[in-house]
């Protein structure tokens, strides 16, 4: 009876040792594949960094536009900004501009 118990005990020890080893190996393999895990995490981190830099650029553009709006609204209007906007959007020209007629 003791021999049977020792064999049974060794089988259980191997079983309890091998199953967690197999499961952890499968988890490591799954984490390193492209269906999820570490590569996808790295891709998402890169996407977040790109989105943050784009956000900073857009916030800078917004601050520039807000400054222009503040200069042309209200009681203190900047005439240089108005002249530049009229030149750009309404087709006004400066005296030093040259025009070439195109038919």
Which short descriptors sum up this protein?
103 residues; mainly alpha; 74% helix; 0% strand; rod-shaped
Characterize the structure shown.
The N and C termini lie far apart (111 Å). The chain has 103 residues and is mainly α. It is built from three helices and no strands.
Provide a brief overview of the structure.
Helices cover 74% and strands 0% of the residues. By secondary structure, the chain is mainly alpha-helical. The longest helix has 35 residues, at 38-72.
* Number of beta strands: 0
Helix fraction by DSSP (H/I, runs of at least 4): over 70%
Strand content: under 5%
Distance between the termini: 111 Å
- The 3D shape can be described as rod-shaped
Structural class: mainly alpha
Poorly predicted ranges: none
The biggest beta sheet, please?
Answer: none
Encode the helix/strand succession as letters.
Answer: HHH
Compile the SSE list and pairings:
Elements: H1 2-31, H2 38-72, H3 79-89
